[in-house]
Amino acid sequence: MIPDLQQRIDSALQDIQLLDHPFYRRWEAGELKRDELTHYAEQYRFFETMLPTFLQQLSEELSPGQARDLVDANLSDEVTPPSHVELFEEFARFYDASTVSISPAMANLVDSYAQALLRGSASGLAGLFAYESQGAAIADSKAAGLNKHYGASDEALTFWQEHGSIEGDHAKWTFDALSSLDPDLDEVALSTRLVGEAWWAFLDEREMQSA
Q1: 1 pLDDT exceeds 70?
Q2: What average pLDDT does the segment 134-142 reach?
Q3: 211 pLDDT exceeds 90?
Q4: Which of 68, 99, 143, 179 has a beta carbon 3.0–4.6 Å from 160's, enabling a disulfide?
């Protein structure tokens, strides 16, 4: 089951690996303007503030046991002080992010998590894994770029450095939780793709904003 599960997830994300997106390539290369980081932070904030609620709802959908325990461990990392929302605000403040309305692509991204969860707890886990499977590499890349090219303070880097160190664990916990449910592989592929495409579309929006 586990090799088949991994293969279906890999196939669903094969052509939408987020570090291959032009926006992240420009981030890595130091080609973003400061206001692009500002606008990115203003929108990413909506995802970061949604995530604890999503994890809580996912936990409540799961029966007591391994899968729920693993989701609760992930949630604990999100909310234990200093919470990840608080750490993210250090990054957002450094790049002068203000309070703005949610963009269409971010609204779609947030909704994609809700839609995955509506399909069931296994689908919710698959949607969660779509980003977490890439999260550590993305966070490491962002932190390196911010440090090298964009003059980020230590406080602004902390959120990304923290995620670089823990997202590997989160991805493993989420995959283990998902595999413990013996999920329908077609449903896994559908929800993985749903959330993966929503992340890709959000980065497309960031690129269009820079044009």
Answers
A1: no
A2: 98
A3: no
A4: 143
Q: What is the CB neighbour count within 10 angstroms for residue 75?
A: 18
Query: Domain residues of the chain, as ranges?
Result: 2-210
Q: Which CATH superfamily is domain 2-210 in?
A: Heme oxygenase-like (1.20.910.10)
The C-alpha angle 44, 45, 50, rounded to 5 degrees, equals: 100
CA nearest neighbour of 190 among 13, 4, 17: 13
Q: Is the pLDDT of residue 180 over 70?
A: yes
Question: What are the tens digits of pLDDT across the range 53-79?
Answer: 999 999 999 999 999 999 999 999 999
Measured distance CA(89)–CA(197) in Å, rounded: 26
- The span from the CA of 34 to the CA of 41, in Å, is 11
pTM over 0.85: yes
**Separation of alpha carbons 22 and 102, rounded Å:** 22
- Token duo for residue 150: 């964009």
| Percentage, residues of the chain above pLDDT 70 | 99
205 contacts 104 by C-beta, under 8 angstroms: yes
Place of tokens 């399909």: 119
Residue 7 has pLDDT above 80, yes or no: yes
Closest CA relative to residue 121, chosen from 198, 197, 65, 49: 65
Q: How far apart are CA 84 and CA 106, in angstroms?
A: 19
